[in-house]
Amino acid sequence: MDRSAISAKLGELLVNELGLEEDKITEDANFEQDLEVDSLGVVELVMAMEDTFGVKIPDEEAEKIHTVGEAIDLLNGKLNG
Amino acid sequence: MSRAALVTGGSRGIGRSIALALASAGNPVAVNYASRADAAEAVVAEIEAAGGTAIAVGADVSDPGAVEALFAEVAERLGPVEILVNNAGITRDNLLLRMSVEEFDSVIATNLRSTFLCTKAALKGMLRARWGRVVSIASVAGVAGNPGQGNYAASKAGMIGFSKSIAKEVGSRGITVNVVAPGFIETDMTDALGEQVKEASLGGIALGRFGAPEEIAATVAFLTTDGAGYITGQVIGVDGGISL
Protein backbone atom coordinates (compact mmCIF):
# COMPACT_ATOMS: atom_id res chain seq x y z
CA MET A 1 0.00 0.00 0.00
CA ASP A 2 1.65 3.27 -1.08
CA ARG A 3 1.40 6.57 0.76
CA SER A 4 -1.58 7.88 -1.20
CA ALA A 5 -3.49 4.65 -0.60
CA ILE A 6 -2.71 4.91 3.11
CA SER A 7 -3.92 8.51 3.06
CA ALA A 8 -7.20 7.53 1.40
CA LYS A 9 -7.80 4.64 3.78
CA LEU A 10 -7.00 6.78 6.82
CA GLY A 11 -9.36 9.45 5.51
CA GLU A 12 -12.17 6.89 5.34
CA LEU A 13 -11.39 5.80 8.88
CA LEU A 14 -11.50 9.37 10.17
CA VAL A 15 -14.86 10.02 8.57
CA ASN A 16 -16.55 6.68 9.17
CA GLU A 17 -15.14 5.67 12.55
CA LEU A 18 -14.43 8.96 14.26
CA GLY A 19 -17.16 10.97 12.58
CA LEU A 20 -14.88 13.79 11.42
CA GLU A 21 -15.95 16.24 8.72
CA GLU A 22 -14.38 15.23 5.43
CA ASP A 23 -13.74 18.75 4.15
CA LYS A 24 -11.73 19.68 7.24
CA ILE A 25 -9.30 16.80 6.84
CA THR A 26 -5.97 17.93 5.39
CA GLU A 27 -2.45 16.71 6.08
CA ASP A 28 -1.75 19.80 8.16
CA ALA A 29 -4.90 19.46 10.24
CA ASN A 30 -4.15 19.03 13.94
CA PHE A 31 -6.43 16.42 15.50
CA GLU A 32 -7.06 18.28 18.74
CA GLN A 33 -6.96 21.87 17.51
CA ASP A 34 -8.47 21.68 14.03
CA LEU A 35 -10.55 18.52 14.09
CA GLU A 36 -11.83 18.84 17.67
CA VAL A 37 -10.76 15.35 18.67
CA ASP A 38 -10.27 15.19 22.44
CA SER A 39 -7.17 13.59 23.97
CA LEU A 40 -8.98 10.29 24.55
CA GLY A 41 -10.13 10.45 20.93
CA VAL A 42 -6.52 10.50 19.78
CA VAL A 43 -5.91 7.31 21.77
CA GLU A 44 -8.97 5.79 20.11
CA LEU A 45 -7.68 6.89 16.71
CA VAL A 46 -4.41 5.06 17.32
CA MET A 47 -6.33 1.93 18.32
CA ALA A 48 -8.43 2.19 15.15
CA MET A 49 -5.26 2.65 13.08
CA GLU A 50 -3.82 -0.53 14.61
CA ASP A 51 -6.98 -2.48 13.82
CA THR A 52 -7.41 -1.13 10.29
CA PHE A 53 -3.80 -1.31 9.13
CA GLY A 54 -2.72 -4.34 11.15
CA VAL A 55 0.22 -2.57 12.78
CA LYS A 56 1.41 -2.09 16.36
CA ILE A 57 1.83 1.48 17.53
CA PRO A 58 3.58 1.73 20.92
CA ASP A 59 2.61 4.59 23.26
CA GLU A 60 5.86 6.48 22.67
CA GLU A 61 5.16 6.57 18.92
CA ALA A 62 1.48 7.36 19.41
CA GLU A 63 2.35 10.41 21.47
CA LYS A 64 4.09 11.96 18.46
CA ILE A 65 0.95 11.95 16.33
CA HIS A 66 -0.57 15.44 16.28
CA THR A 67 -1.60 15.95 12.66
CA VAL A 68 -3.17 13.85 9.92
CA GLY A 69 0.10 14.00 7.96
CA GLU A 70 2.06 12.65 10.94
CA ALA A 71 -0.37 9.74 11.20
CA ILE A 72 0.07 8.96 7.50
CA ASP A 73 3.87 9.18 7.81
CA LEU A 74 3.89 6.83 10.78
CA LEU A 75 1.76 4.27 8.93
CA ASN A 76 3.85 4.69 5.78
CA GLY A 77 7.02 4.06 7.77
CA LYS A 78 5.55 0.90 9.30
CA LEU A 79 4.06 -0.52 6.11
CA ASN A 80 6.70 0.58 3.60
CA GLY A 81 9.73 1.50 5.74
CA MET B 1 -27.01 -8.85 27.19
CA SER B 2 -24.06 -10.90 28.32
CA ARG B 3 -20.62 -9.29 28.67
CA ALA B 4 -17.32 -10.92 29.55
CA ALA B 5 -16.54 -10.20 33.19
CA LEU B 6 -13.31 -10.47 35.16
CA VAL B 7 -13.27 -10.59 38.94
CA THR B 8 -9.81 -10.28 40.47
CA GLY B 9 -9.39 -12.27 43.65
CA GLY B 10 -12.53 -14.15 42.71
CA SER B 11 -11.88 -17.48 44.39
CA ARG B 12 -12.95 -16.64 47.93
CA GLY B 13 -14.95 -14.27 50.09
CA ILE B 14 -16.55 -11.24 48.49
CA GLY B 15 -14.91 -11.91 45.10
CA ARG B 16 -16.40 -15.38 44.96
CA SER B 17 -19.89 -14.02 45.63
CA ILE B 18 -19.41 -11.34 42.97
CA ALA B 19 -18.33 -13.96 40.41
CA LEU B 20 -21.43 -16.04 41.19
CA ALA B 21 -23.74 -13.01 40.96
CA LEU B 22 -22.32 -11.81 37.63
CA ALA B 23 -22.59 -15.34 36.22
CA SER B 24 -26.17 -15.72 37.35
CA ALA B 25 -26.92 -12.46 35.55
CA GLY B 26 -25.85 -14.26 32.35
CA ASN B 27 -22.28 -13.02 31.96
CA PRO B 28 -19.34 -15.31 31.23
CA VAL B 29 -16.97 -14.80 34.15
CA ALA B 30 -13.20 -15.09 34.53
CA VAL B 31 -12.38 -15.97 38.12
CA ASN B 32 -8.89 -14.69 38.83
CA TYR B 33 -6.90 -16.08 41.74
CA ALA B 34 -3.43 -15.53 43.15
CA SER B 35 -2.71 -18.83 44.88
CA ARG B 36 -5.89 -20.82 45.49
CA ALA B 37 -6.44 -22.59 42.17
CA ASP B 38 -8.59 -25.20 43.92
CA ALA B 39 -10.93 -22.56 45.33
CA ALA B 40 -11.17 -20.79 41.95
CA GLU B 41 -11.95 -24.09 40.19
CA ALA B 42 -14.68 -24.72 42.77
CA VAL B 43 -16.27 -21.36 41.91
CA VAL B 44 -16.08 -22.23 38.21
CA ALA B 45 -17.70 -25.60 38.89
CA GLU B 46 -20.48 -23.94 40.88
CA ILE B 47 -21.18 -21.50 38.04
CA GLU B 48 -21.14 -24.27 35.43
CA ALA B 49 -23.44 -26.44 37.54
CA ALA B 50 -25.92 -23.56 37.50
CA GLY B 51 -25.71 -23.38 33.70
CA GLY B 52 -23.29 -20.49 33.46
CA THR B 53 -19.91 -20.00 31.80
CA ALA B 54 -16.71 -19.40 33.75
CA ILE B 55 -12.97 -19.94 33.65
CA ALA B 56 -10.31 -19.79 36.37
CA VAL B 57 -7.18 -17.79 35.58
CA GLY B 58 -4.25 -17.50 37.94
CA ALA B 59 -2.31 -14.22 37.99
CA ASP B 60 -0.58 -11.92 40.45
CA VAL B 61 -2.52 -8.79 39.55
CA SER B 62 0.12 -6.50 41.06
CA ASP B 63 2.54 -7.63 38.33
CA PRO B 64 2.31 -5.83 34.96
CA GLY B 65 3.41 -8.81 32.87
CA ALA B 66 1.01 -11.14 34.66
CA VAL B 67 -1.87 -8.71 34.13
CA GLU B 68 -1.09 -8.50 30.42
CA ALA B 69 -1.14 -12.30 30.16
CA LEU B 70 -4.34 -12.48 32.22
CA PHE B 71 -6.22 -10.12 29.92
CA ALA B 72 -4.89 -11.87 26.82
CA GLU B 73 -6.12 -15.22 28.10
CA VAL B 74 -9.55 -13.90 29.08
CA ALA B 75 -9.95 -12.12 25.72
CA GLU B 76 -9.11 -15.32 23.88
CA ARG B 77 -11.43 -17.56 25.90
CA LEU B 78 -14.36 -15.25 26.76
CA GLY B 79 -13.88 -12.12 24.64
CA PRO B 80 -12.69 -8.65 25.66
CA VAL B 81 -13.41 -7.78 29.30
CA GLU B 82 -16.33 -5.38 29.44
CA ILE B 83 -17.06 -5.80 33.14
CA LEU B 84 -14.08 -5.48 35.47
CA VAL B 85 -14.32 -5.94 39.21
CA ASN B 86 -11.16 -4.92 41.06
CA ASN B 87 -11.60 -7.03 44.14
CA ALA B 88 -8.20 -8.57 44.89
CA GLY B 89 -7.00 -7.34 48.23
CA ILE B 90 -4.89 -8.16 51.24
CA THR B 91 -4.34 -6.77 54.72
CA ARG B 92 -1.10 -6.47 56.67
CA ASP B 93 -2.41 -4.70 59.74
CA ASN B 94 -0.04 -3.02 62.14
CA LEU B 95 0.23 0.13 64.15
CA LEU B 96 2.08 2.72 62.13
CA LEU B 97 5.02 2.83 64.52
CA ARG B 98 5.51 -0.88 63.96
CA MET B 99 4.61 -1.00 60.27
CA SER B 100 7.44 -2.03 57.95
CA VAL B 101 7.98 -0.65 54.48
CA GLU B 102 7.28 -4.15 53.17
CA GLU B 103 3.91 -4.24 54.95
CA PHE B 104 3.02 -0.88 53.46
CA ASP B 105 4.25 -1.59 49.92
CA SER B 106 2.75 -5.06 49.59
CA VAL B 107 -0.73 -3.81 50.50
CA ILE B 108 -0.49 -0.86 48.14
CA ALA B 109 0.73 -3.15 45.34
CA THR B 110 -1.93 -5.81 45.70
CA ASN B 111 -4.85 -3.46 46.33
CA LEU B 112 -4.08 -0.25 44.46
CA ARG B 113 -1.46 -1.00 41.83
CA SER B 114 -3.58 -3.94 40.67
CA THR B 115 -6.54 -1.62 40.24
CA PHE B 116 -4.45 0.67 38.07
CA LEU B 117 -3.00 -2.18 35.99
CA CYS B 118 -6.28 -4.04 35.45
CA THR B 119 -8.36 -0.96 34.70
CA LYS B 120 -5.79 0.21 32.18
CA ALA B 121 -5.72 -3.21 30.55
CA ALA B 122 -9.52 -3.35 30.34
CA LEU B 123 -10.05 0.13 28.94
CA LYS B 124 -9.05 -0.50 25.34
CA GLY B 125 -11.69 -3.16 24.87
CA MET B 126 -14.27 -1.01 26.62
CA LEU B 127 -13.45 1.97 24.41
CA ARG B 128 -13.90 -0.20 21.34
CA ALA B 129 -17.24 -1.42 22.67
CA ARG B 130 -18.24 2.09 23.77
CA TRP B 131 -19.51 0.33 26.87
CA GLY B 132 -17.82 -0.73 30.06
CA ARG B 133 -18.27 -1.22 33.75
CA VAL B 134 -15.48 -0.94 36.27
CA VAL B 135 -16.34 -1.60 39.90
CA SER B 136 -13.64 -1.51 42.53
CA ILE B 137 -14.10 -2.95 45.98
CA ALA B 138 -12.74 -0.50 48.53
CA SER B 139 -13.65 -0.43 52.21
CA VAL B 140 -15.23 1.73 54.84
CA ALA B 141 -11.64 1.99 56.12
CA GLY B 142 -10.72 3.90 52.97
CA VAL B 143 -13.41 6.47 53.69
CA ALA B 144 -13.29 6.78 57.47
CA GLY B 145 -9.87 5.35 58.36
CA ASN B 146 -9.18 2.56 60.82
CA PRO B 147 -6.45 2.23 63.46
CA GLY B 148 -3.91 -0.43 62.54
CA GLN B 149 -4.82 -0.16 58.87
CA GLY B 150 -2.85 2.83 57.66
CA ASN B 151 -1.59 0.86 54.67
CA TYR B 152 -4.94 -0.77 53.87
CA ALA B 153 -6.92 2.46 54.29
CA ALA B 154 -4.43 4.33 52.09
CA SER B 155 -4.80 1.70 49.36
CA LYS B 156 -8.59 1.85 49.53
CA ALA B 157 -8.71 5.66 49.59
CA GLY B 158 -6.35 5.50 46.60
CA MET B 159 -8.80 3.28 44.74
CA ILE B 160 -11.53 5.85 45.38
CA GLY B 161 -9.52 8.81 44.02
CA PHE B 162 -8.36 6.72 41.09
CA SER B 163 -11.90 5.65 40.23
CA LYS B 164 -13.28 9.19 40.36
CA SER B 165 -10.52 10.40 38.03
CA ILE B 166 -11.01 7.61 35.50
CA ALA B 167 -14.79 8.07 35.66
CA LYS B 168 -14.17 11.60 34.37
CA GLU B 169 -11.66 10.45 31.74
CA VAL B 170 -13.88 7.85 30.09
CA GLY B 171 -17.41 8.90 30.93
CA SER B 172 -18.03 10.27 27.44
CA ARG B 173 -17.53 6.76 26.02
CA GLY B 174 -20.29 4.97 27.92
CA ILE B 175 -17.94 3.55 30.53
CA THR B 176 -18.83 3.88 34.21
CA VAL B 177 -16.34 3.57 37.05
CA ASN B 178 -17.62 3.11 40.57
CA VAL B 179 -16.53 1.96 43.99
CA VAL B 180 -18.32 -0.22 46.49
CA ALA B 181 -17.16 0.30 50.06
CA PRO B 182 -18.06 -2.70 52.21
CA GLY B 183 -18.27 -2.44 55.97
CA PHE B 184 -17.79 -5.47 58.20
CA ILE B 185 -18.44 -8.48 55.97
CA GLU B 186 -18.05 -12.05 57.20
CA THR B 187 -15.12 -13.50 55.19
CA ASP B 188 -11.77 -15.17 55.80
CA MET B 189 -10.28 -11.68 56.02
CA THR B 190 -12.50 -10.61 58.91
CA ASP B 191 -12.44 -14.07 60.53
CA ALA B 192 -8.81 -13.33 61.28
CA LEU B 193 -9.88 -10.55 63.65
CA GLY B 194 -10.33 -11.36 67.33
CA GLU B 195 -13.72 -11.80 69.00
CA GLN B 196 -13.12 -8.63 71.00
CA VAL B 197 -12.69 -6.56 67.84
CA LYS B 198 -15.81 -8.11 66.31
CA GLU B 199 -17.92 -7.42 69.40
CA ALA B 200 -16.71 -3.83 69.51
CA SER B 201 -17.50 -3.38 65.81
CA LEU B 202 -21.07 -4.63 66.18
CA GLY B 203 -21.96 -1.72 68.43
CA GLY B 204 -21.24 0.75 65.64
CA ILE B 205 -23.38 -0.94 63.00
CA ALA B 206 -26.85 0.56 62.68
CA LEU B 207 -28.30 -2.69 61.36
CA GLY B 208 -26.81 -4.55 64.32
CA ARG B 209 -25.21 -7.37 62.34
CA PHE B 210 -22.29 -8.12 60.09
CA GLY B 211 -22.84 -8.26 56.34
CA ALA B 212 -22.72 -11.23 54.01
CA PRO B 213 -20.57 -11.34 50.84
CA GLU B 214 -23.77 -11.80 48.82
CA GLU B 215 -24.91 -8.37 49.94
CA ILE B 216 -21.83 -6.77 48.38
CA ALA B 217 -22.23 -8.90 45.26
CA ALA B 218 -25.81 -7.74 44.73
CA THR B 219 -24.72 -4.10 44.64
CA VAL B 220 -21.80 -4.83 42.33
CA ALA B 221 -24.05 -6.82 39.99
CA PHE B 222 -26.49 -3.91 39.85
CA LEU B 223 -23.71 -1.44 38.99
CA THR B 224 -22.75 -3.59 35.99
CA THR B 225 -26.21 -3.48 34.42
CA ASP B 226 -27.46 -1.12 31.72
CA GLY B 227 -29.91 0.18 34.32
CA ALA B 228 -27.02 1.60 36.34
CA GLY B 229 -25.67 3.44 33.30
CA TYR B 230 -26.10 6.90 34.82
CA ILE B 231 -24.13 6.13 37.98
CA THR B 232 -20.42 6.90 37.77
CA GLY B 233 -17.64 8.07 40.06
CA GLN B 234 -19.62 7.08 43.12
CA VAL B 235 -18.64 5.36 46.33
CA ILE B 236 -21.53 3.16 47.41
CA GLY B 237 -21.31 2.18 51.05
CA VAL B 238 -22.69 -1.30 51.72
CA ASP B 239 -21.93 -1.32 55.39
CA GLY B 240 -25.03 -1.71 57.50
CA GLY B 241 -24.71 1.92 58.50
CA ILE B 242 -21.28 1.58 60.15
CA SER B 243 -20.17 4.76 58.41
CA LEU B 244 -23.04 6.85 59.80
Short characterization:
The complex is a heterodimer of chains A (81) and B (244). Chain A is built from 4 helices and no strands.
3D structure, described in words:
- The complex is a heterodimer of chains A (81) and B (244).
- By secondary structure, chain A is mostly helical.
- Chain A is 57% helix and 0% strand.
- Chain A is built from 4 helices and no strands.
- Chain A is globular.
- The model of chain A has no long low-confidence stretch (mean pLDDT 93).
- Chain B is α/β, with parallel strands linked by helices and 244 residues long.
- In chain B, 48% of the residues lie in helices and 14% in strands.
- Chain B has helices spanning 13-24, 37-49, 64-78, 101-129, 140-144, 150-170, 188-191, 195-202, 213-223, and strands at residues 5-7, 29-33, 54-58, 83-86, 132-137, 175-182, 235-238.
- A 7-stranded parallel beta sheet of chain B has the order 3-2-1-4-5-6-7, sandwiched between helices.
- In chain B, strand 1 (5-7), helix 1 (13-24) and strand 2 form a beta-alpha-beta unit.
- In chain B, helix 1 packs parallel to helix 2 (37-49), helix 1 (13-24) packs across helix 9 (213-223) and helix 3 (64-78) runs parallel beside helix 4 (101-129).
- The longest helix of chain B has 29 residues, at 101-129.
- Chain B is globular and about 45 Å long.
- Chain A binds chain B through residues 38, 40, 43-44, 47, and chain B through 124, 127-128, 169-170, 172-173.
What is the topology?
The complex is a heterodimer of chains A (81) and B (244).
Chain A (H helix, E strand, L loop, with lengths): L2 H14 L22 H15 L5 H4 L5 H13 L1
Helix pairs in contact in A: 1-4
Chain B lengths: L4 E3 L5 H12 L4 E5 L3 H13 L4 E5 L5 H15 L4 E4 L14 H29 L2 E6 L2 H5 L5 H21 L4 E8 L5 H4 L3 H8 L10 H11 L11 E4 L6
Parallel strand pairs in B: 1-2, 1-4, 2-3, 4-5, 5-6, 6-7
